[in-house]
Every structure is written in structure tokens, then in C-alpha cells.
Amino acid sequence: MNSTEVPEKPAMTVPVTTIGGGPTRPDSDSLGTMQVPEDAYWGIHTARALENFPITRRPISVYPDLVRALARVKQAAARANREIGVLDAAKADVIERVCEEIIAGELHDQFIVGVIQGGAGTSTNMNTNEVIANRALEIMGHRRGEYQFMHPIDDVNRSQSTNDVYPTAVKLSLVFGINRLLEEHALLAQSFARKGHEFAGILKVGRTQLQDAVPMTLGQEFNGFSHTLVEDHDRLRETIPLLSEINMGATAIGTGITTDPRYAEAVCRHLAEITGIDTVTAKDLIEATSDVGVFMTVSSNLKRAAVKLSKICNDLRLLSSGPQAGFGEINLPAKQAGSSIMPGKVNPVIPEVVNQIAYSIIGADATVTAAAEAGQLQLNAFEPVIAHSILQSLAWLTNGCRTLRVNCIDGITPNVQRLAAQVETSVSVVTALTPYIGYAASATLAHTALTTNASIADLVIENGYMTEEEVRRVLRPERLSGLVPATGVIDVITQDDLDAAAAEQR
Questions:
Q1: Where are the domains of the chain?
Q2: Are 337 and 346 in contact (CB under 8 A)?
Q3: I want to staple 99 with a disulfide (CB 3.0 to 4.6 A). Which of 38, 71, 291, 357 is the partner?
Q4: According to the UniProt record, where is the region Disordered (predicted)?
């Protein structure tokens, strides 16, 4: 080469990179070659995700429901592709076999990409494809990475795109998680109901705005807790049919490019058979591929359930506060020493942890809302953070319901003597007398009772408003709590009536 010649630029290459230590095998993609651990079932796409997204240090395998859902989607796709003749039957069979292993709990340690990732879930989908392909190669008698015999994309991902696989798998995993939450949620509601029955005859003072209101029973209070949980149980259950609409067959943006016209119906049918969920194909696959409204609905209902449960836990902490200088109406089971400095102190740690779960779920719902709004054109790129937020909320709320039931509600006991004393000295019982003596007289007696610590019943009798028998009848616990309501027309005693009665006595 003479001095006037310009040398050719070398071909652009990507350096060979090694992930981890120990024996490796080469793996390649359109960007170059990497060395991946020889014993890994994942490949280069997963390896790149490990380098690109070292964010949460939490792999997708922390959500087993998602891993199993991905396997079910791949299994349904293999069946559909075999049925319509676009995938060799032998390959489809071995893909199914591997999927069954994953559904049974095997190979989950190979799902290692981070839960938060760019690419709208592509790394998760490719991690799944590579694990299934390499395990299939092993079953077929080949070495991992010999993709000419079973390819992660051409075979495992046949007729699919991340953009239909990932949201479908997320929806299925949410259905699995919601069903598990519903079981624990129902058990918790039943636990409150049992306490409601147990405490049915225990009278106490009700409160509004943290001020004494009117009497009720402790059983009524706990029944109220149970009923509010049942309402949330119904709202959560109603989200399952919404999650059953899938966009399999949409591929990239909803047009179904690269798929056989028969595929969408076939894969939906097989997915329903595999999961037992009544999956249906969305009417508009372009809309379904970009729309994440159902995730907002699920997240919102989770937030509702968590917030209401947290309010109940606030009540439990108040009712058990003390034990000497607080409400002290109920006793929560003592679960651990409450202080490193104050001997004998025991804190309401179980309700406190449920409160914190609720705060996290509130934040997760805000994340889901922001991510849903940020979607652009034909795809929402932020479904990984949506999936992570909701799956974490589901897992934490499920665990919270369980520990609240087992470690708190089932062991609650009442402080019967304290409750009785509060009712006996409470001015609030005067409300039950207002239909008989009028509001003005009741207010006057209430003021007198508060300033003198006198009994309302004694004041009513002393002032000649009612006889002792009449007062005892009106202030019976079952009437005070509304269990036996007063019926018929009640005649209010006027001042003229009192004057006339006084005249007769003279």
C-alpha cells in the first residue's frame, strides 16, 4: 500500500464478553458474541439484560405465578402451532414437556432477568424462550446453544411477539395471584365474623370523630369489619373476567403479522384448556395491544382493599391502646417484646405491618397510573413496572391478610369489665332517652352528668322524667345497641306533662 492509499475501516464488531466465571459457551445475536455459563439454560439475550438492567437485583423468578404463566403461554402457542401445521410436531411436543416442568416448579432459578427492564418485557420473553429451547435441546440429546435443532425464536417463539406474550402472561399471573388473595381475604373476613359472634353480648361505647357517641356491642364492631372485607372481596373477584381478555395473535402491534389466520383462535382455545381460565381474544387486537386499562382497574381495587384493611388496623390499634392509659377495650395477642428500653412494653406489631403494606400498595397504584398514562401509540413500553407493582401488591396483601388473621385477629380478647364501666359512666346513653324526655332536657342532663360525674339514669329518675323501671327498660343493652329497636309511636314528655305530674303529687 503506497502512502496515498486510505486503509479500509475494519468491520464493526462487538467485543466478546463473559458473564460470570467457570466454563462458558459462545452465544451470538445480531450485535455480536458473548460467552455465557456453560451450565446456564439462558443465552445471550438474557446475558445482555443482566448487563443492561442491574436495577432492582430482583429476578422475575420472585414472582412464580409470572414464570408459570409464561410457560403456559408458550405451551399453548406450541399446541396451536402444531395444530395449524407451522411447527414440527416433535418440536412442539418437547416444548410442551419443558413447559410442564416449569409449571411444576422446575428451572425457575434460570429466570434471572430483572423485574424492571426496558423493552416492554422483551428480556423476560427472551429469557423464557432461551430456557425452554436449551432444556428442550438437552432432552433431545443436543448441547445447549445448538439452536439449529431447537431455536428460541424460530421455534419456541413461533407466531408470537413479546407484545402479546408478555401482557397475556401478566394477566394470567394476576388471575392466579388474585385467586390466592381471595382465599386469604375470605378467611380473614370469617375470622372477624367469628369474633363478632363471640363478642355479640358485650356492650361498649361507640365513637365518632374520636368522641363518645352511642352504645353498640363489640360484636357489632367486629361484624362491621367482616362485612367491609366481604365488599372488597367481591370487587377483587370482579376483575378476573376483565383479565381473561387476551391479545395472543396480535404479535407486534395488533395486526397479526407473521401469524397464520387460524392461530389466534387456536392459541386462545388451548390456553383456556391449559389454565382453566375462560380466556377470550380481544375484538380489536390493535386496541388491546396498547391498552393497559385493566391493570389500572386491578391496581385500584387492590388499593381499595388495602386502604380499608389498613383503616381496620388503625381501629385495632386504637381499641387496644394502653393498656392502662389508652382505650384498653381489647387485647391483641402479644407477639414480641416492644422496646429495648421500656420493660414489659408490647406493641401492636401485626396491625402495624399491615398498615405499611397498605402504604406500599397506595404508592404502587400511583406507579401503575403513571406508567399507564405514559404509553405511546401502539404499545405501552412500561408494562414491566406495571406488572412488578401489581404482583408485589398482590403478594404482600395476601401475606398481610394471613398474618393478621393468624397472629392477631384469632387471638383477640375483650376487656369486659373496662367496657362495662365505660358504658355505665358514659353520658352517651342519654341519646336513647331523647325520644322520651326531649332533646333539651337530655342536653341539660348530659351537661350535669359531665360536671358532676353523676349517673344519667339516676338524674333522669331524680328529676322525675321517668321511673326506674322505665329507665331500666329503655337502657337495656339490646335496645341501646339497636339489636331490639323500639317500635311504635313514642310520646315525648313535655314540660307541661312534668308540671302536671308534679301538681298531682302535691
A1: 17-158, 165-416, 426-505
A2: yes
A3: 71
A4: 1-30
pLDDT exceeds 90 at position 233: yes
Please check the confidence at residue 171 and state whether its pLDDT lies above 70.
Answer: yes
Calpha distance 317→466 (Å, rounded): 39
Cα 497 from Cα 464, distance rounded (Å): 11
| pLDDT tens column, 325-338 | 889 999 999 887 76
Convert the pLDDT of each residue in 91-134 to its tens digit. 999 999 999 999 999 999 999 999 999 999 999 999 999 999 99
Q: How far apart are the first and last CA of the chain?
A: 139
- The count of C-alpha atoms lying within 13 angstroms of the C-alpha of 467, restricted to the half-sphere facing its C-beta, is 4
**In the beta sheet, which residues pair with residue 205?**
215
Residues whose CB is less than 8 angstroms from the CB of residue 26 and which lie 6 or more positions away in sequence, other chains included: 16, 33, 34, 35, 36, 145
Let me know: does 384 contact 117? Beta carbons within 8 Å: yes
Close Cβ partners of 192 (under 8 Å, ≥ 6 residues apart):
222, 223, 225, 226, 229, 409
User: In angstroms, what CA-CA distances link 469 with 147, 422, 474?
Assistant: 93, 22, 9
- For the question of residue 173 being annotated catalytic, the response is no
* Range 165-416 classified under CATH 1.20.200.10: yes
Question: 2.60.40.10, 1.10.275.10, 3.40.50.300, 3.90.226.10: which CATH number matches 17-158?
Answer: 1.10.275.10
State pTM to two decimals.
0.85
